[in-house]
## 1
Amino acid sequence: MTGNITLTMIKPMAVKKGFIGPILHKIAEGGFRIVAMKYMKLTLEQAEKFYEVHRERPFYQELTEFMSSGPIIAAILEKENAVQAYRDYIGATDPAKSEAGTIRALYGTNLGMNAVHGSDSDDNAKVEADFFFSSLERF
Ligand code: GDP
């Protein structure tokens, strides 16, 4: 069975470039309902914890430093088969290879600064949603 929530972040460079509004608009247009949302800045330690699964990858330090370099939007999105639906909607990891019209193609800068995060499994969606939001912050 597939789950109905995924966790997204609008990453620091997309926030800096003024893309919060356009990206939220795109998310709504894609039929994703916002269950929870916050505007915040991760500490380096929080970014390291969030990306723990990537600790052994060569870009871990670059990724965590970037993700804690400025404010982000974090949100839980709801839709049927949300994880896969949202990954399809945002496009490939590298914006240069993302399908035209996807969020990463439209608003991504490069591989590291690819505009948004999307959970990669139902299990991780739950862990990531719990990382950011209590039950009182979900509607
Ligand atoms: P995703 O599931 O499409 O987000 O991709 P991954 O799980 O493979 O990687 C997680 C995040 O790490 C990506 O969204 C990128 O922002 C970043 N990332 C992946 N590969 C690289 C890389 O080679 N260099 C840098 N700087 N960042 C990377």
Note: The longest strand covers residues 33-40.
## 2
Amino acid sequence: MKLGLILGDQLNENNAIFDHLNQESDVIVMGEVLEEASYVPHHLKKIILIFSAMRHRAERLKEQGWHVHYHSLDLTSSIKSFPDLLEAARSLGDVDEILVAHPGEWRVLDMLKTWSEQRQVPLRVLPDTRFISDLTSFDAWAEGKKQLRMEFFYRLMRQKTGFLMVDGHPVGGVWNLDAENRKRWKGDPPIHPIKPFHPDPITQAVIEQVCAELDGFGSAEGFDYPVTPEQAQEAVSDFVTYRLTAFGDFQDALVDEEDYLFHSRLSAALNVGLLDPMDVCQQAIDAFEAGRAPLNAVEGFVRQIIGWREFIRGIYWRFMPDYATRNTLGHDQPLPEWYWTGETKMRCLARAIDATARNAYAHHIQRLMVTGNFALILGVVPEAICRWYLAVYADAYDWVELPNTLGMVMHADGGVVGSKPYAASGKYIERMGDHCKHCHYSVKETETSQACPFNALYWDFLMRHRDKFEANPRMKMMYRNVDRMDEDRQQAIAARAQWLKTHINTL
Ligand code: FAD
Ligand code: DLZ
């Protein structure tokens, strides 16, 4: 008999294990296990989403006639980890082989392989069909390149998928319309709210159990994520109908009172396999072709999925496991305590963390330019900020969180993901939104006690790391601005930055 192991984020109907299993003789194994639910303080909504989607998937498989060995969370049980789960499943019969789709985390792959070797039970790891590109193709593309840039990988993916292509050329004549996607949102067009999915009895039972038995970050209240493929499809239609049109224009905007703006909130469903990335992109492209959405929106959205999502995953598997411990900039500051509470007078950070705690979600610009940028210019230890991102978002798994945080945000990978750090002062946040109007600090000031902390930390970051970045052509202008300051000003900024670091938990 074979066991088919389905991990909590592998709920896709085309999971490769089904090509190799026999419905009569083989058994599907799924388990809610304490170790996975607690190795970081996951947001309660993330745990609820995973457990509920797993339970729905198990029910569906049973209806289809599969034998499913499902272990629900049970704190009194001796099954606390994936190895415990497999050990228990072995008692179901003579197990010849265990099949699993490639896990999304190096830690889990290593754990399963180690168990299989120790127990002498063959383990077959199959391709992960939640992605468009396989890892061998990514490696073939990456091999021999001095620099890996998303833009070139994206162009290859456009050709491979045929998305937004005509006669071998990009529709509209350019590959990337990002330059059009940086508008500030001033209230028009109105933002259509995210479609909520109210908990059914399965989800309700999960909510009650998770709240009673597990600890985690954030609030379970108002859980409204899609937990089945059908609901996830409704979420896609909702996005394509009501928000895609303005997605491009306001992709980089920050708005004090808006949690989602025109973003899709599809990442959590994509990452557990409730949605197929090709299908999601196709629906956006259909809207473009029918004249219901402009090219800058659709190209921008498709790029995020076939470009960034696939590129990030390729980077993860190419550079793990040593990638996780990189700290090229030698950063050593602890994560401010208020990342866990949102209790800071800096309005942009307070709003981003508050949204995160309520929704297990913050949009990309909050993650990159607010919580991420602040951790970068403060010089937080990469491991500490990575752990935070992995815990607090419903869509967070190591394969996607790590290269985004350690690479894109912290530049701790030495430039594998990005050619320059996304360091920015308060001026950027002021330009992109309205947080600064509501802030305790003054974005116009730098060295004073009232000054926006982003400002001194930004200049201090540039001055501290001059040797690494001043020759970078994309940062020349930043260093010209540093050089315009006289020595007294530079010293005052360094002193203010030092004061901010020593008083960080009071800001
Ligand atoms: P939209 O803005 O609507 O974008 C559409 C889709 O594109 C997303 O659903 C997502 O699947 C994909 N996408 C966009 N950008 C990226 C990217 N940089 N990497 C991978 N996929 C991308 N995304 C995660 O899915 N999980 C994470 O743990 C995660 N951690 C991040 C940490 C940091 C520090 C940063 C800067 C970004 C992170 N992202 C992560 C990427 C991105 O912020 C989220 O995918 C996005 O905010 C999810 O919201 P959305 O579905 O509304 O996205
Ligand atoms: C994130 C997570 C959580 C919270 N709980 C479970 C679980 O109980 N069972 C499970 O199969 N997976 C869970 N996951 C996802 C894993 O931590 C991990 O990210 C995936 O197994 C990687 O493919």
Note: Residues 141 and 153 are 8 Å apart (CA to CA).
